[in-house]
Automatic annotation (TrEMBL):
SIS domain span: 41-180, 213-358
Sorted UniProt keywords: Aminotransferase, Cytoplasm, Glutamine amidotransferase, Repeat, Transferase
Protein purpose: Catalyzes the first step in hexosamine metabolism, converting fructose-6P into glucosamine-6P using glutamine as a nitrogen source.
Subunit organization: Homodimer.
One example of a Gene Ontology biological process annotation: UDP-N-acetylglucosamine metabolic process
Cell location: Cytoplasm
Catalytic machinery residues: 363 (for fru-6p isomerization activity)
Enzyme Commission designation: 2.6.1.16
EC class: transferase
Catalytic reactions of this protein: D-fructose 6-phosphate + L-glutamine = D-glucosamine 6-phosphate + L-glutamate
GO cellular component, one term: cytosol
Protein name: Glutamine--fructose-6-phosphate aminotransferase [isomerizing]
Length: 368
């Protein structure tokens, strides 16, 4: 049932192009989107004045990416919060708040409790989950299923990628309902989304050097990850994967924060993974991160750079360049996350660890 792979995680990483295609299937007609189960009217969606995304772990990182897309497309403010914090801080929630609960299992107790708390205060709740009929799906006003198929590996991979896709779909749906995007704009994002399975395939086909790199770093004490914009949550996810699978100290920072503290950590040979945004999109972002790479390298870091195909500006400062296909800035996480999953998985395997069942972790945590 591992389909010839020694671990479920390897199989699930490889299944991502199909998982994305399945999640898009039937939902992208001219940019319209059908939620699987909706008990929220268009009028109510037009009334929404704030979106709050709640989730735990990897699902929280999908939520962070959602913020960039949903705010950009809908101009509605989006907060993203870990479910366990949301619930206990007396959040400002009312009937005009749209809560988006992201949970692979649909059973995480922290997220479920946050959903109940939000509903009690009359917020509408949309669930993004991979589990049909799960508790969170049943208790929400609308459900958007990710069609990743069952995920056995404890560390989320294909469910994360499909959660990000679902968040984009939700953002486009809201933008259309609220009239904040022209049909042409929606269509162009939709077109790009449908190309994503192919792009992910390309990343998977060219990922061998990442495996070699990971094996060479199995003895490292720590790895830092840097990103900007949507690359920042990707960096957070890369670091979390490394903690979960390889039990390694891994930390991610917004690259702009470097100079405010983390740069003190840089020492000779420290591996620093940098997620670089497209130079063709917001070029300011790109230029800034290139100087961040220079800064850490000048202090001895071993720089591992994830950059778009054709981005030559990073080459002089990178010890290793990992290439991903060209995408728009907002959709880049769908390709840039993949090498980080492979990196963490391979590094853990090189240490002889069981990547499907990391110590101390459970696939679904049904206690608070
Ligand atoms: C953790 C899992 O316990 O729960 C993570 O080990 C997962 O992989 C997190 O991201 C959240 O789970 P869910 O099911 O709510 O997305």
């Amino acid at each position: 049932e591992k389909g010839g792979y020694p671990y479920f995680m390897l199989k699930e990483i490889a299944e991502q192009p199909k998982a994305v295609a399945d999640t898009l299937l039937g939902r992208l007609q001219g940019g319209s989107l059908s939620l699987d189960e909706v008990r929220i009217s268009d009028d109510d969606l037009r009334q929404v004045d704030k979106v709050i995304v709640i989730a735990c772990g990897t699902s929280y990182h999908a939520g962070l990416i959602a913020k960039y897309a949903i705010e950009h497309w809908t101009r509605v403010p989006v907060e993203v919060e870990v479910a366990s914090e949301f619930r206990y801080r007396d959040p400002i929630v009312d009937r005009d708040t749209l809560v988006v609960a992201i949970s692979q299992s649909g059973e995480s107790m922290d997220t479920l409790m946050a959903v109940r708390h939000a509903r009690k205060q009359k917020a509408r709740v949309v669930a993004i989950t991979n589990s049909n009929g799960s508790t969170i799906a049943r208790e929400s006003d609308a459900v958007l299923y990710t069609h990743a198929g069952p995920e056995v590996g404890v560390a989320a991979t294909k469910t994360f990628i499909t959660q990000v896709v679902a968040c984009y779909l939700l953002g486009l749906f809201l933008a259309r309902t609220r009239g904040t995007m022209y049909d042409d704009e929606v269509r162009s994002v939709v077109r790009e989304l449908s190309d994503m399975p192919e792009h992910i395939d390309t990343v998977l086909d060219t990922v061998e050097p990442v495996r070699e790199l990971a094996r060479s770093l199995a003895g490292a004490r720590a790895v830092l990850f840097l990103g900007r914009h949507v690359g920042y949550p990707v960096a957070l996810e890369g670091a979390l994967k490394l903690k979960e699978l390889a039990y390694m100290h891994a930390e991610a920072f917004a690259a702009g924060e470097l100079k405010h503290g983390p740069i003190a950590l840089i020492e000779d040979g420290l591996p620093v993974v940098v997620v670089v945004p497209s130079p063709r999109g917001r070029s300011v972002l790109h230029d800034k991160i290139v100087s961040n790479i220079q800064e850490v390298r000048a202090r001895g870091a071993r720089t591992i750079v994830i950059a778009e195909e054709g981005d030559e500006a990073v080459v002089p400062y990178a010890d290793t360049v990992i290439r991903v296909p060209q995408t728009s800035t907002l959709l880049a996480p769908l390709v840039s996350t993949i090498p980080l999953q492979v990196f963490a998985c391979e590094l853990a395997l090189a240490k002889g660890l069981d990547v499907d069942q990391p110590r101390n972790l459970a696939k679904s945590v049904t206690v608070e």
